[in-house]
Amino acid sequence: MINATVLDTPIGPLALLEHDGALVGGGFTADPRELHVRLHPALRAHDLTEVDDLGDITKAHIAYFDGDLTALDTIAVHQPGTPRRERLLAALRQVRPGETVTYAELAARAGLERTAARAAGQACAQNLVAPVVPCHRVLPAAGGTGLKRYGGYYYGAERKQWLLAHESGH
């Protein structure tokens, strides 16, 4: 069974999905089913049950949005994938609050060749555990102006901008 809850956050509802004590889904939506259908088939096979609270997972998210920027570090996550993708997502969890990297830097941190920036971008696009696996901390190397300088983010550039500002104390 996959347990799901939805938290109210300063940037909208955040659905959280838990299985066997690990966070398997997290995303800015009021409907946990939107995440459930995107899960790895082995996880998607489990029924989804909405609950009021996910215990420590819920507490850590509340603490994060209240200003404890390292609160999410203690949450166990499970995102099945290829070994390369798992290395990229593990490297992504090592990017600290207030820090940003490019896709090429993320690939290098994962021990992959710098030409693996495209794979890093794909891993971020497929990340289903936001903001615990902080793909919002990856910026395009090209930069840009306005919201374009933040690059893509599944939940919108405005949310990415808010998360980065929250983590840098602005």
Automatic annotation (TrEMBL):
It comes from the Bacteria. Residues 85-168 form the Methylated-DNA-[protein]-cysteine S-methyltransferase DNA binding domain. GO terms for molecular function: methylated-DNA-[protein]-cysteine S-methyltransferase activity. One of its GO terms (biological process) is methylation. It is an enzyme of class 2 (transferase). It catalyses: a 4-O-methyl-thymidine in DNA + L-cysteinyl-[protein] = a thymidine in DNA + S-methyl-L-cysteinyl-[protein]; a 6-O-methyl-2'-deoxyguanosine in DNA + L-cysteinyl-[protein] = S-methyl-L-cysteinyl-[protein] + a 2'-deoxyguanosine in DNA. Its EC number is 2.1.1.63. Keywords: DNA damage, DNA repair, Methyltransferase, Transferase. This is Methylated-DNA-[protein]-cysteine S-methyltransferase. It comes from Thermomonospora cellulosilytica. The lineage of its organism: Bacteria, Bacillati, Actinomycetota, Actinomycetes, Streptosporangiales.
